[in-house]
Automatic annotation (TrEMBL):
Residues 151-162 have a biased composition (Polar residues). Transmembrane segments: none annotated. It holds the Pfam family WD40. GO terms for biological process: cilium movement; outer dynein arm assembly. Its main location: cytoplasm. This is Dynein intermediate chain. Residues 14-23 have a biased composition (Pro residues). InterPro entries: Dynein_IC, WD40/YVTN_repeat-like_dom_sf, WD40_repeat_dom_sf, WD40_rpt. Residues 1-37, 113-162, 167-186, 207-238, 641-700 are annotated as: Disordered. The keyword Hydrolase does not apply. WD repeats lie at residues 509-551. The lineage of its organism: Eukaryota, Haptista, Haptophyta, Prymnesiophyceae, Prymnesiales.
Length: 700
């Protein structure tokens, strides 16, 4: 056998070096190739997308704001639906902006659903079949159901048992009797508190009187025995009757009243009649009623607001009936306490007029029915007046119908004027110890001054020679012209007088047939004044002409009138049928802008506006001793500024509704040339327009 042939050894090939990275093709879009950590790890190739931008490092570092909106950019905006009502296709503006990115159905079922009931039936059927199968196996005697005990390793397993002692339980109980309880109920009112305080004061007075008698007897006995008495220690002030207790009780009483009249207080502060936007007339909202038990059967003869405190006003009680005269009363009420006056005092005769001092808000002058004038300081604890006129000091002989404070004289003495039916306009000066009087003017009767006297001037001249003086009923001093004042008389004439010339009248205005009850200057215009009379009329005058510009017949006796402090064309008058008439001559020149009945069975006697324009309240008094607070609605509170603002807003709304006019100036350009005027100047201009219109109607 031939020998085997040996193969020639072949050289072992060396390991091939790693393949070089493929060259980057511009179309392959390779960004870079990262080799592996070892020679056997594969290379990582980062591929750059074709649409990726080439940005520099500076552009990459810039911050970009992205806004996410809650709408679907893929939502269609031209969906049309067929309208069966209009029989045509309509564009559907409602587009569903919901975009679903992921949805997965749940595996939970509601217990009351059909599928849950079917699944429960299947489970019950399976459990029943399994129970039947177990019963069948037990019946056949199979060992599948027996519990087989597993064998345990005896080298690493042992069983141990122990028994613990359970503590015996003990029950403990106690019995207690509940504390005795008593049901108590009661009611506390203001008058009960007042009566309790008064009873306590009476008991203390009686105790002090008994103690004083006892001390007097002991002192007499010691004096008789010759034993000197020992000095007693002064007792401390009683806390119940201290000033701090009175102040706290007043605050508590006001809090109780505020809670009682909470709805009225809210109406006073926030009520605005929304129906005024749909009508031209206005309304008056009744707020509080102020009355005093001791003055129920008396007439309200004066209502005057305090110049410093906007919530405080004075009310005078008397009687206009000559046959039913009695004592009078002066009360101070506050809007913070409608149920009881802050101050009250009784006068020997009826109070006919009151007036607060404009600088000294606690000083009050009062005119009485017997011709006496008094001056009170309401801060004083004493109810007596600090000054009072007498027969020696020259008091009036007839009722004092009106009083008015004036500026202090050169000696800084307080002084005021008064007018009476005895025909005197008197200046009273508060001296150190008494009132000093001097007659400013005596009202002389003039032939033909009354309309009734035009029928027979000769008879009037004879009456004037017999009577001598005209009976003064009212007067008013101009706030804009210091030297001018007006006087209304019982004969129906109105005289314009001056403080500098007291010998004669500057002018006489004849227009009323009966006594003039009130005459008032306008608060904004220096020429205009108004008057009311028992002849059922209210007249508007210009003091430069002797005839009335306007006349309003109210069909009943007019008791009083007052000008509004916020508008130069608004005034209110009250009549004997219980109605309040509010006029706004800028809105209606022929009839009242508001006519509302305030009292049912009583006659209205006095009306007064709150002097502050930011507190629109009207006080009205009647002949039953009641004063009612009224709040005018927005239509009755128009001012020149508010009216112009409302007209401007209405004009802007109309222009906005109709679209901008071609060539119209812009709002900014139109407002640059406007010059804001003082509200008082605007009110004066409004009154001047009414005055010019009235003069023009007279000429025509």
């Amino acid at each position: 056998m031939p020998p085997a042939r040996k193969k020639k050894a072949e050289p072992v090939p060396e390991a091939a070096p790693p393949a070089p990275p493929p060259e980057q093709d511009p179309d392959s879009q390779y960004e870079r190739i990262i080799p592996g950590s070892s020679e056997w790890d594969p290379m990582r190739i980062i591929i750059k997308p074709r649409e990726q931008l080439q940005l520099t490092e500076k552009e990459l570092a810039e911050e970009t704001t992205m806004v996410l909106r809650a709408d679907n950019p893929q939502a269609p905006h031209n969906i049309v639906r067929f309208s069966h009502k209009e029989k045509c296709f309509k564009l559907d503006p409602a587009v569903d902006q919901l975009e679903v990115h992921f949805a997965q159905e749940g595996h939970l079922l509601h217990l009351t659903s059909d599928e849950a009931k079917k699944q429960k039936d299947r489970d019950d059927e399976e459990k029943a079949s399994l129970a039947r199968e177990m019963e069948r196996k037990k019946a056949e005697g199979t060992d599948d159901g027996e519990d087989a005990t597993g064998l345990r390793n005896q080298f690493n397993f042992s069983e141990r048992a122990s028994q613990t002692l359970n503590n015996a339980r003990r029950e403990r109980g106690t019995m207690t009797e509940p504390p005795p309880s008593v049901e108590y109920s009661g009611q506390c009112t203001q008058w009960e508190m007042f009566d309790a305080y008064m009873e306590d004061i009476e008991r203390r007075k009686e105790a002090e009187a008994k103690k004083g008698k006892k001390d007097k007897k002991e002192g007499t006995r010691e004096k008789e025995d010759g034993v000197p008495g020992t000095a007693k220690e002064e007792s401390k002030d009683n806390i119940v009757h201290s000033a701090a207790m009175a102040h706290a009780a007043k605050i508590l009483e006001r809090m109780a009243n505020q809670n009682t009249f909470a709805d009225v207080t809210e109406d006073f502060k926030f009520w605005e009649d929304a129906s005024d936007t749909f009508r031209d007339e206005g309304t008056l909202l009744p707020l509080w009623k102020f009355s005093y038990d001791k003055a129920k059967k008396k007439h309200v003869t004066a209502v005057r607001w305090n110049p410093e405190f906007a919530d405080l006003f004075a009310v005078g009680y008397g009687s206009y009936d000559f046959m039913k005269q009695g004592t009078g009363m002066l009360c101070l009420f506050s809007l913070k306490n409608p149920s009881w006056p802050e101050f009250s005092c009784t006068t020997p005769t009826g109070v006919m007029c009151v007036d607060w001092h404009p600088q000294h808000s606690s000083v009050l002058c009062v005119g009485l029915y017997d011709g006496t004038v008094c001056v009170y300081d309401v801060r004083s604890k004493s109810m007596a007046p600090i000054y009072q006129s007498t027969v020696k000091s020259g008091k009036h002989t007839d009722p004092v119908w009106e009083v008015c404070w004036q500026e202090e004289d050169l000696a800084k003495n307080l002084n005021f004027f008064s007018i009476s039916s005895d025909g005197r306009v008197t200046l009273w000066t508060l001296a150190k110890s008494e009132l000093e009087c001097s007659d400013l003017m005596q009202l002389k009767l003039e032939p033909g001054a009354s309309l009734m006297g035009k029928q027979s001037n000769e008879m009037e001249e004879e009456d004037a020679s017999l009577m001598g003086l005209a009976g003064g009923c009212c007067f008013d001093f101009s706030k804009l012209s210091e030297h001018l004042f007006l006087v209304g008389t019982e004969e129906g004439a109105i005289h314009k007088c001056s403080k500098a010339y007291n010998s004669e009248y500057l002018a006489t205005y004849t227009g009323h047939y009966m006594a003039v009850y009130t005459v008032r200057w306008n608060l904004f215009h220096p020429k205009i004044f108004a008057s009311c009379s028992a002849d059922w009329t209210v007249k508007l005058w210009d003091h430069t002409t002797k005839t009335a510009l306007m006349s309003f017949d109210l069909n009943l006796q007019v008791g009083d009138l007052a000008w509004s402090p916020w508008s130069s064309t608004t005034f209110a008058a009250c009549t004997a049928d219980g109605k309040v008439h509010v006029f706004d001559l800028n809105e209606n020149k022929n009839e009242p802008y508001c006519e509302q009945k305030v009292a049912r069975k009583s006659k209205l006697t006095k009306v007064a506006f709150n002097p502050r324009a930011d507190t629109p309240v009207i006080m009205v008094g009647d002949d039953h001793g009641t004063v009612v607070a009224l709040k005018p609605s927005p239509n009755l509170r128009w001012t020149a500024v508010s009216k112009a603002e409302a007209e401007r807003k209405a004009k802007e709304e109309a222009e906005a509704a109709s679209g901008p006019r071609r060539g119209a100036p812009k709002k900014s350009d139109a407002g640059d040339g406007e010059v804001k005027k003082d509200p008082r100047e605007l009110e004066m201009e409004k009154a001047e327009r009414i005055l010019e219109m009235a003069h023009k109607n007279q000429i025509e």
